[in-house]
Amino acid sequence: MGTPSDRAPLAERVEELLAGGGPLPIVAAGDPVLRRGTEPYDGQLGPALLARFVEALRITMRAAPGVGLAAPQVGVPLRIAVIEDPAPVPEEVRLARGRVPQPFRVLVNPAYEPVGGTRAAFFEGCLSVPGWQAVVARPAEVRLTGQDEHGHTVDEVFSGWPARIVQHETDHLDGVLYLDRAESRSLSSNRAVTERWAQPTPEEAARALGFDLP
C-alpha cells in the first residue's frame, strides 16, 4: 500500500477530472497514457472518490456509447475498468458471436488467461480509435481474476462476446490496443463495416480483403 502522500497526486488529478461533471473526455490513440500501462489499484482514490470515479466511467461509457471503458481511456493510469453490454443484436448475431447481455461491472486489477485453445475472430472497435474496426482473433474462453470495486475477489470464466470485452478492457490496462492484435488487412471504416461486413461472422470480409481466420 502506498502512503497518503504517494496517493495524493493521482487523487488530485481524478478530482480535477471529475470537477467538470458529465461524461469525461475519451483519450484517443496516440496519447502516451494509452501505452504506458497502469499501476495496480491499492486505495489511491479512497472509497468515496473511487465510487465517484466508477460512476463517471459508467456515464462516459454509456454516453459514447460503448460496452467497456478502461481508466487510461480517460487519462487515469489505474488498473480499473468497467463493462456493460445490453446486447441489442439480432438472434443470428447472438448465436454466431455468443453475445449475451452483461450487467454493469467494475473490474479492479483484472488479469486473464485463456481456457482451452479455441480462438474466435470478429470485427472489433474501440472508443479510443473512433471510426474504425478490425478483425481480432482472441481466445474464445478466458478465466478472469481480480477484484470488484468493493474489494471482493473476482474469479470467473467468460466465453463468447463477454470474453472479448474483458480481454479488450484488460489489454488497455497493459498498454495494448486492439489494433496491436488485429489482422491489419481487415482494417475498415465503420461505414464499410456497416455497408459491406455486417454479417454475423467475418468470413466474407476475410475472402474479399485477403486475410486468414483461425
UniProtKB/TrEMBL annotation:
Binding locations of Fe cation: 126, 168, 172
Entry note: cofactor: Binds 1 Fe(2+) ion.
EC nos: 3.5.1.88
Cofactor(s) this protein cannot do without: Fe(2+)
Catalysed reactions listed for this entry: N-terminal N-formyl-L-methionyl-[peptide] + H2O = N-terminal L-methionyl-[peptide] + formate
Alphabetized Pfam families for the sequence: Pep_deformylase
Family per similarity comment: Belongs to the polypeptide deformylase family.
Biological function: Removes the formyl group from the N-terminal Met of newly synthesized proteins. Requires at least a dipeptide for an efficient rate of reaction. N-terminal L-methionine is a prerequisite for activity but the enzyme has broad specificity at other positions.
UniProt protein name: Peptide deformylase
Lineage, broadest ranks: Bacteria, Bacillati, Actinomycetota, Actinomycetes, Kitasatosporales
